[in-house]
UniProtKB/TrEMBL annotation, chain A:
Stored Pfam families: Fer2 (PF00111), Fer2_2 (PF01799)
PANTHER family per the UniProt record, alphabetical: BLR6046 PROTEIN, OXIDOREDUCTASE WITH IRON-SULFUR SUBUNIT
Keyword hit for NAD: no
CDD domains per UniProt: fer2
Keyword Iron-sulfur listed: yes
Domain of life of the native organism: Bacteria
An annotated Gene Ontology molecular function: oxidoreductase activity
InterPro entries, alphabetized: 2Fe-2S-bd (IPR002888), 2Fe-2S-bd_dom_sf (IPR036884), 2Fe-2S_ferredoxin-like_sf (IPR036010), 2Fe-2S_ferredoxin-type (IPR001041), 2Fe2S_fd_BS (IPR006058), Beta-grasp_dom_sf (IPR012675), Diverse_Oxidoreductases (IPR051452)
Ranges where the 2Fe-2S ferredoxin-type domain occurs: 1-76
Keyword tags: 2Fe-2S, Iron, Iron-sulfur, Metal-binding, Oxidoreductase
Protein name: Aerobic-type carbon monoxide dehydrogenase, small subunit, CoxS/CutS family
From TrEMBL, chain B:
Name of the featured protein: CO or xanthine dehydrogenase, Mo-binding subunit
UniProt cross-references to Gene3D superfamilies, sorted A to Z: Aldehyde oxidase/xanthine dehydrogenase, a/b hammerhead, Aldehyde oxidase/xanthine dehydrogenase, molybdopterin binding domain
Domain of life: Bacteria
Coiled coil: none
GO MF assignments: oxidoreductase activity
Pfam family, one: MoCoBD_1
Ranges of residues in domain Aldehyde oxidase/xanthine dehydrogenase a/b hammerhead: 203-282
SUPFAM superfamilies: Molybdenum cofactor-binding domain
Length: 160, 735
């Protein structure tokens, strides 16, 4: 039995301790947000927050997560009452297929909680681990700028 | 018909209400009328598209699928606008062989042209019938009836609900080709309505086939070698079936799937099987770079176009160039996935296939079932950008589900399987020749293109990976060139410029040593890259500005308008002179010469030390006909620009003699955030009343050419082979 704390709730799961967190979230806890993209830590579709830092949930075995705080997009609000970051993504219509978007939102959440006044270059570099194939990047960047303002800060222009 | 007006329409509507006429008779009658809009021509009955319950709830049906491009929202806008209701009053049912018209494959930027126009005109017909029925019930003139938010209003304040009206008329009526669109009231068309699918996607709602969890569902992985043309060495499947948590191993010939109650157990078992190693039973691959093989393989020559004209004058300047593109990958972020359930010899498959109708036929073939025993229901997947593993994984899931009747099976491909087995976008070579007159006009034009097929979509079991693995195996589908005007490898090989003494030929290379099929925009990406690069080269020979040179050869007013708008908004005339690593480039095309018009200008810098390109600005203008959602159009074009920059500057599938070596994102890198443009602007030219034109593939070709033209402007050297990588740029600068 493994005890996991996800979005503030503690769950006891009968799962192989080597199971990557992603499978426990999706199958045992029925959370859709974190996505399977590669299982290799290359694309960021599975990004969640572990102790407030972005992590590839496809790689982290659940045995290593006892006593740690896991957050997924489901913890940021609902479709009706979204948190600041998901609300900014919706306002900017920052999705095409949307498969990467939960991961993008979680990485943005981690970035802006740590620093709500990042530079544009910092935003681009922080989001680099996450892939989008539809080419929604420009909208995602707009959503990050909007979310930074909503969280009391703002993205600063980088010096050229 | 216009002269007959609405009274005649009422009579016809009443006729349909009063008598039962066989569908065949009505369909025959429809055949004699002018063509109906879009796919309404194929499915002329209104109730194929729109139904209204007695309680007034409206359901709209489309055979097209949401591929993450906002189709659902756009179709809801069209229907809601014409029926004077809010989009929330409509349930939209998308591609489902059990419920919707078979509109073939959702591809080629066809959805708004085929399904959007059908739904628009069906809704105009339904609006007419509701109005006529209300007028009859109110005993008033048709013009005195107003429809709004599900109610018909009469001249004296009487009201009747749509449900009440619909109950007294039949929508099983053949559409009229000239049903007038509504002319009054608030319009939803042209509004930026928020996409209906986004709230769930930003909150962890169930949005994709990957998110389906059915009671009793098993998880499955399919067993394959590392890439197409390979297979795993035999493993001890008896032992695999006994591994902890494994429900069973399903085998049919060489097809193998591992089923488990817990997904991670299936993953572990697959890794165990893969440890046995692999082999290549197929012949070795002919070349690491397919471009080198393409012009040596036997080809069928297909004429593309021939515009007669006087021969080029003796003094004309001749310009020639050869361009090429490598194999490209679709690279969906979510590997392909499907859920299947087998009940009493009936198969249901939930799939992100682009074509539920063709997939149903192929699955029926594979499983020796009658097609009416197979139902394919579209559920969104990760963006596909053409024919990826969606159909193959549906077949894999179906074969697995057949072994466990009554239990749903979700089969998820691995990342390495998607990279290794998805059909690739063909490598291509284009050679262009032109003659330039002393008057700086093009006097002759010759286009040759070499390519494998761009359509390997399954219509039989032989088009599915599993079809070659089951016992007995099915013969592979033989690829055929897609005819013009849409074309496959020759898509957009006929420039929209006013040319005479011009011709093109498509060398269709049937033998494909690697698996290839439709990648977004098919040959258009390459043909437009080549044509629009070459136009710049010829303009350079003529000593003319590239945009001016395009305009003197463009007569189509809508084409001229997008070129002028992109140039103006970019500030083309005032642009900084190219050189010293800074340059500007332009590209234009009308997709397929039938779809959206798109012009793109780019400003870039090239670091001559590292060869790295940075895109400073992208400015696009697009004309998609009547713009339903300007923001949806902008989203598509922004995406096309970024995706095409990735294709054009970074991407190339690599091979050795035995397999693909682009097995994951480390071996097949795509553009990440630090490499995207600093800014992208898209300007939409709205054409109210003009037919909807698909937008999803309009920007890829123009972007590729604009990039190459900007590089040439920046470093004074022409790069004609994609991808325009730092290594190629540095090599060009050294030579």
């Amino acid at each position: 039995m493994i005890t996991l704390t996800v979005n503030g709730t503690t769950h006891t799961l009968d799962v192989d301790p080597e199971t990557p967190l992603l499978y426990a979230l999706r199958n045992d806890l029925a959370l859709n947000g974190a996505k399977f993209g590669c299982g290799l830590g290359q694309c960021g579709a599975c990004t969640v927050l572990i102790d407030d830092r972005p992590a590839f949930s496809c790689l982290v075995p659940i045995a290593s997560l006892v006593g740690r705080k896991i957050r997924t997009i489901e913890g940021l609000g609902t479709a009706e009452q979204p948190g600041a970051v998901p609300a900014a993504f919706e306002a900017e219509q920052a999705a095409q297929c949307g498969y990467c978007i939960a991961g993008m939102i979680m990485r943005t959440q981690a970035l802006l909680e740590r620093n709500n006044r990042p530079t544009e270059a910092e935003v681009r570099s922080q989001l680099a681990p996450n892939l989008c194939r539809c080419g929604t990047h420009m909208r995602i960047l707009r959503a990050v700028r909007r979310a930074a303002v909503a969280m009391g800060g703002g993205v600063q222009e980088s010096s050229p | 018909m216009t002269g007959l007006g609405r009274r005649r329409f009422l009579t016809d509507g009443a006729l349909v209400m009063a008598f039962t006429i066989s569908g065949r008779a009505l369909a025959q009658e429809a055949m004699e009328l002018p063509p109906l809009a879009g796919d309404l021509q194929k499915y002329p009955f209104l109730d194929s598209w729109i139904r209204i319950d007695a309680d007034g709830r409206i359901t709209v049906f489309t055979g097209k699928a949401e591929l993450g491009q906002g189709l659902k929202t756009a179709l809801l806008q069209v229907a809601a606008d014409e029926l004077s209701v809010s989009p929330a009053a409509i349930d939209l049912v998308t591609a489902d062989t059990g419920r919707t018209p078979d509109e073939g494959v959702t591809a080629g930027s066809h959805s708004m042209q085929d399904s959007g126009m059908a739904i628009l005109n069906a809704a105009a017909n339904v609006r007419g019938l509701l109005t006529d029925t209300a007028a009859w019930r109110f005993a008033c003139a048709i013009d005195d009836v107003e429809l709004q938010d599900g109610l018909a209003y009469g001249p004296n304040g009487q009201t009747l609900g749509y449900g009440d009206l619909a109950a007294s008329l039949s929508l099983h009526a053949v559409a009229k080709p000239d049903a007038p669109r509504r002319s009054k009231g608030r319009r939803l068309i042209g509004e930026n309505v928020g996409r209906v699918d986004i709230p769930a996607k930003v909150s962890g709602g169930a949005s994709y086939v990957q998110d389906m969890r059915l009671p009793g569902m098993l998880h499955a992985r399919v067993v394959r070698g590392p890439s197409d043309g390979t297979r795993l060495k035999p493993a001890d499947f008896e032992q695999i079936a006994k591994m902890p948590g494994i429900d069973r191993v399903v085998r049919d010939g060489r097809f193998v799937a591992i089923l488990a109650a817990k997904e991670w157990d299936a993953v572990k078992a697959l890794r165990h099987v893969q440890a046995a190693g692999w082999e290549r039973p197929s012949p070795d691959l002919p070349a690491a770079d397919m471009r080198d093989a393409l012009q040596k393989l036997p080809a069928r020559d297909v004429p593309i176009f021939e515009y007669p004209g006087p021969p080029a004058p003796a003094g004309a300047t001749k310009v020639t160039a050869r361009y090429s593109r490598p194999l490209l990958m679709h690279g969906s972020i979510g590997p392909s996935c499907a859920v299947a359930r087998w009940d009493n010899d009936n198969l249901t498959v939930w799939t992100h296939s682009q074509g539920v109708g063709p997939l149903r036929k192929a699955l029926a073939d594979l499983l020796h079932l009658s097609p009416d025993k197979v139902r394919c229901i579209h559920v969104e997947g990760s963006g596909c950008y053409g024919h990826n593993g969606a159909d193959d994984v549906a077949a894999d899931a179906a074969l697995a589900a057949r072994a466990v009747p009554g239990r749903p099976v979700k089969l998820q491909w691995t990342r390495e399987q998607e990279h290794g087995w998805e059909p690739l976008g063909s490598a291509m070579v284009v050679e262009l020749r032109a003659a330039l007159g002393a008057d700086r006009r093009i006097k002759a034009w010759w286009h040759e293109v070499w390519s494998n097929a761009h359509n390997g979509r399954p219509v039989t079991a032989g088009g599915l990976l599993a079809g070659a693995e089951v016992e007995p195996p099915f013969p592979p589908q033989i690829p055929k060139p897609i005819p013009m005007p849409e074309g496959g490898g020759h898509r957009n090989a006929n420039p929209l410029y006013a040319l005479s003494n011009a011709a093109g030929i498509y060398h269709f290379v049937e033998s494909a040593p690697v698996r290839v099929s439709a990648l977004r925009s098919l040959g258009a990406h390459m043909n437009i890259f080549a044509i629009e690069s070459f136009v710049d080269e010829v303009a350079g020979t003529a000593g003319m500005d590239p945009v001016d040179f395009r305009l003197v050869h463009l007569q189509d007013e809508r084409a001229r308008a997008v070129v002028e708008m992109a140039a103006n908004r970019f500030g083309w005339a005032r642009r900084r002179k190219g050189g010293n690593g800074r340059g500007s480039g332009f590209g234009f095309a009308r997709y397929k010469n039938l779809g959206a018009y798109c012009a793109i200008a780019l400003e870039i810098t090239v670091d001559e030390r590292t060869g790295r390109i940075a895109v400073r600005r992208a400015v696009a203008a697009v004309d998609s006909g009547e713009a339903i959602s300007p923001d949806g159009i902008r989203n598509q074009v922004e995406g096309a620009i970024v995706q095409s920059l990735s294709w054009t500057t970074m991407e190339q599938v690599t091979l050795d003699t035995v397999h693909r070596t682009s097995f994951d994102w480390s071996a097949y890198p795509i553009l990440r955030f630090p490499g995207v443009p600093e800014s992208v602007e898209v300007h939409v030219i709205d054409r109210p009343g003009e037919p909807f034109l698909g937008t999803g593939e309009a920007g890829q070709g123009p972007t590729a050419a604009a990039l190459a033209n900007a590089v040439s402007d920046a470093i004074g050297l022409r790069l004609r082979d994609m991808p325009l990588t730092p290594a190629r740029i540095k090599a060009a600068l050294r030579s």
